[in-house]
Design a protein that fits this description.
About 25% of the residues lie in helices and about 30% in strands. By secondary structure, it is α+β, with helices and mostly antiparallel strands. It has one domain: RutC-like (60s Ribosomal Protein L30, Chain: A, 2-Layer Sandwich), CATH 3.30.1330.40. Strands 1-2-3-6-4-5 form a six-stranded mixed beta sheet, with helices on one face. GO terms for molecular function: deaminase activity. Belongs to the RutC family. InterPro entries: RidA, RutC-like_sf, YjgF/YER057c/UK114.
């Protein structure tokens, strides 16, 4: 078993004791990504776009891309933003989208509005 920590300067550095991603046996586990710099602007689509770009940067650092994603988890502060988040998220998965759940939560780190994590396989 070969465990590789994946890190890129193209995505936010971890704000706690965790890695941006861990790759093991061809499977990449990407930690929840947020858009701290956009969370106070109130534009859920811009925030979601940045989160997905962060995920893309981490996937690239691991030698993967969006089609490698098999599972995603979306955590959102307000389920009323579901359609807006879906619209942006869907641009990144135009064919054969991954399995997914979307969960409304009371609060997210740094008071962001959306956090997304993914699992990808080579």
């Amino acid at each position: 078993m070969s465990k590789q920590i994946v890190y890129t300067d193209e995505a936010p550095a971890p704000i706690g004791p965790y890695s941006q991603a861990v790759k093991i046996n061809g499977t990449l586990f990407v930690s929840g990504q947020v858009a701290i710099e956009l969370s106070t602007q109130g534009d859920i689509q811009a925030e979601t776009q940045k989160v997905m770009e962060n995920i893309g940067a981490i996937l690239k650092a691991a030698g993967m891309d969006y089609p490698n994603v098999v599972k995603s988890s979306i955590f959102v502060k307000d389920m009323n933003n579901f359609a807006a988040i879906n619209e942006v998220y869907g641009r990144f998965f135009t064919e054969n989208p991954p399995a997914r759940e979307t969960v409304e939560v009371a609060r997210l780190p740094k008071d962001v509005n959306v956090e997304i994590s993914v699992i990808a396989v080579q």
